[in-house]
Design brief:
CATH architecture of the domain at 258-399: 2-Layer Sandwich
Helix content: 25-40%
CATH class of the domain at 258-399: Alpha Beta
Structural class: alpha/beta
Radius of gyration: 30 Å
Low-confidence stretches: none
Number of helices: 11
Length: 399
Amino acid sequence: MKTQRCYAQRRVQVRRSKRLAAVTLSLTALLLLTGCWDIKNIQDMNYVTSIGFDYADNEYRVYVQMLDFISVAKVESGKPSQHVPVWVGTGKGATVIEAVNDLYQTSQVRVFYGQVSSIVVSERVMNKGLRDIQELQNRYYELRFTPWVFGTTMPIDKLFAVTPLFHLSPIISLLHQPMESYRQKSTITPITSREFITNYNEPDQVVLLPSIRATAERWKQDTSPHEVLDINGAFVYQDGQYQGWLSERKLIGLRWIDPKTSRSPLVVYRDGQPEAAVSLEAPKIQIRPIVKGNSAAYEVSVKLSGNISDIVRAIKETELEAEVAARVRNEIRETFVNGLQINSDLLQLQHTLYRTNNKEWKRLKREGNLKLMPDSLADIRVDVQLNNAGKLKYPAASR
């Protein structure tokens, strides 16, 4: 009997221990749960979609573009019937951080930067230096390195207020989705913050910051001009130094030496009259540095394929390919010379030497013999292969 009582007591103790362990485990789990007690509704935060930096009157100015994501969701779920509002905030301060904090004073609710998809920098900030801007991005955890980066000469608050056609969400614009337009017409390559920072301090590396503006010259809503965004050039950096701004026309040859080029149109003229139009794509580029004594020369080879978009007059296919190649060659050389005028190596010739023959690059750099001259670009070879004429057959008489 005594043994049975002991066994029964032991079972009771075991059950109590199990219950105690279960309660302890449950309490511990509750303490470890992150829970959703502090979750905020979407309308309880200001979501920044773009941030801009300017410098005027000896102080920094920070601009933010904010959208009502509830309105954006309604627009994206169906055809928009009314204008999607854009909110633009401004902060001022002696430093970038002080300007950001000044913005918070009137923001009413928390400002969240996790949705930023573009950064805009004024030319005045470029002239002063980007160190403070980069410091903010490096230290503030909500700002990622994936946003697109642009430069501008126009007031950033006006730039942020521009809205797309058809009352679409401002997210569906060149400021936030530049690759959509670039894939259709490749001229100046969009660049992300990560790419810009990576190449910014590379020896003899040229980095182009696309120049964005608002223009009312091309589109109208009924009879009223409507402002839209446009890439009209680029701000040029080399060795981490701002070199100047060049228009899209002066950079036109870069599309043929950029492997990212998706598709770019070209019109061939004869005697001032258009002869044919082609669409070229997927350039394959090879740059060969040639070091002789105390100088370096460079040979550039480009292979392009493409389609014939329009034929104004009958011309042999081989003749057209030769004329297109000559036009591409001229554009590349013109762009190279335009870069020399602002002391920039737009074709990345010196950086190619740095990558492929670092020993000679160091020697020439040390001796001060790396400076590019117009004849440093010794040769440009261009090979063009036109594949088809689209839906129309190539004129039989011109084969």
